[in-house]
Amino acid sequence: MHARKKRRKERSREEWTRAGSREELAEEMAAECILGSATVASTGLPKKIISVSERLLTMDILRQKPNTKRPDIVQVATSLFAARGIDGVSMRDIAQAAGVREAAIYRHFASKEELARQIFLSWYGWHCHQVHQIVTGVGDLKEKLRGIVCQEFTVAERYPEAFFYFCANEVKFLSSLPPEVPAVRNSLSAFIKEGQRRREFRLGGAELIVDMLSGALCEVALSWVRRHRRGSLRRHIELVTESCWRMITA
Fold it and tell me: How far is Cα 87 from Cα 112, in angstroms, rounded to an integer?
């Protein structure tokens, strides 16, 4: 029993740390989120590729002090916070699930609130930078929209607990986002306004269109996470991209 539990924990840890080189992930992500210049075998038509990520999906908070219990504490806390909410989890719960004493948690984090905030800022800050990179990068507006969809769905599929956690706590911790981090909403607003300036997107309230776009993507991804659906969420990227494109275009 103990050996099986240990193996499950090791497999879970591997999923979070995403062992592998940066180059391997860049190739994998480029293949999954095609937005740049490559030939699509089925059509022979050229497309452009913008890799959604150029770094490992392991967040900075999981890279810190790798030879201590800190990564285990963060992993367990994220899972418990996602399942029960921050208020529904105690430091004792986290300590028991991580197999450490409460004092060990306090050596790394001053309080439960600080632990929850640091987890949010690490994951959500990375997500913000990725969306900003897509919006300000190369490619036409539809290619960028596809990149935004791919980014959202990739994170939701690979790290459903972390995705659910930062979606549920965006309002709570958004004010803690450092000023140098481009908030997702600001990037989407710039994207919509650029489309309106080019007369490709619907004119009118840009912020309302941002609400519609972000709400649609978030709800699709969260619904997939909540229902524990089988199969890949990313296989719906083209369908969702086309649907969102029709929603926001003139």
Answer: 9
Q: Map 9-50 to HEC letters.
A: HHHHHHHHHCCCCHHHHHHHHHHHCCCCCEECCCCCCEECCC
Contact between 149 and 237 (Cβ < 8 Å): yes
**Size (the chain), residues:** 250
**Alpha-carbon 208 to chain mean position:** 23
Q: Rounded to 5 degrees, what angle do the CA atoms 108, 12, 68 make?
A: 25
- H or E segment at 224? helix 206-226
Which domains does the chain carry? 2-248 (1.10.357.10)
Residues 191 and 241: their CA atoms lie apart, in Å, by 15
The backbone torsions φ and ψ at residue 201, rounded to the nearest 5 degrees and listed phi first, read: -105, 160
The Cα–Cα gap between 155 and 21 comes to: 18
Those residues whose C-beta lies under 8 Å from the C-beta of residue 197, and which sit 6 or more positions away, are none
Kindly give the interhelix angle for 160-168 and 141-158, rounded to the nearest 10 degrees.
Answer: 110
List, for the chain, all residue ranges whose pLDDT scores fall below the cut of 50.
5, 8, 11-12, 15-58
pTM confidence score: 0.75
90-136 per-position pLDDT tens digit: 999 999 999 999 999 999 999 999 999 999 998 898 899 999 999 99
Which two structure tokens, joined as six digits, stand for 228? 């524990």
